[in-house]
Amino acid sequence: MLKEQPRRHLAAFKTVRRNLSTILKEALRTGDPKLIHNAQINLGEKYLVMGNLQRANSVLVKTWQEVKKPGISYTRWRYKTRLLFALGELYRSLGDNKERLDFIRKALNLAQKSGVKKHQARVLMI
Fold first, then answer.
1. C-alpha distances in angstroms, 95 versus 7, 53, 103?
2. Shortest CA distance to 19 belongs to which of 48, 51, 43, 44?
3. What pTM did the predictor assign?
4. Which of 38, 53, 58, 59 could form a disulfide with 44 if both were Cys (CB 3.0 to 4.6 A apart)?
C-alpha cells in the first residue's frame, strides 16, 4: 500500500506535465508571448517538483533569456517573480549558491516593489 502511493503521485505529476506540455504547444500556436512564457514557467516549475533538474534548467533558463530582453514590458511582475523564484529553487537544488542568491535577490526586489507579501514570504523560504 505504501509503495503504491508514491507511484500514484508520480503518475499524477506525469499527467500534469503532459497537460502543461499540451498547453505550452497551444500557447506557442497563438504566438502570444504572455501565454507562452506563463506556460513555460508552469512547465519548468513542474519539472522542479518532479526532481527533473535538467529539464527544469532547460525550460526556466530559456524562459529567463527571453523575458529579460529589452522591450519585453508586458511581462508582469507576478510572472517574473515566479520565474525568478523558480530559478532560485533550481540553483539551490543544483548546489550553485552564487546563482541561487542572485535570483533570490532579484525575486525579493520585485516582490517588494509590487508590495505582495505572499511573494516576499515565498522568496524568503528558499
1. 27, 11, 14
2. 43
3. 0.74
4. 59
Using the predicted structure, report yes or no on whether residue 74 has a pLDDT greater than 90.
Answer: no
Q: 2 pLDDT band (50/70/90 cuts)? A: very low
- Local structure of 96: helix, strand or coil: coil
Q: What is the dihedral of CA 116, 117, 122, 125, to 10 degrees?
A: 150
Q: Does residue 9 or residue 25 have the better pLDDT?
A: 25
CA atoms within 13 A on the CB side of 31: 0
Question: What number of CA atoms fall less than 13 Å from residue 20's CA on the CB side?
Answer: 18
Amino acid at the residue 120:
Q
Distance CA(57)–CA(62), nearest Å, equals: 8
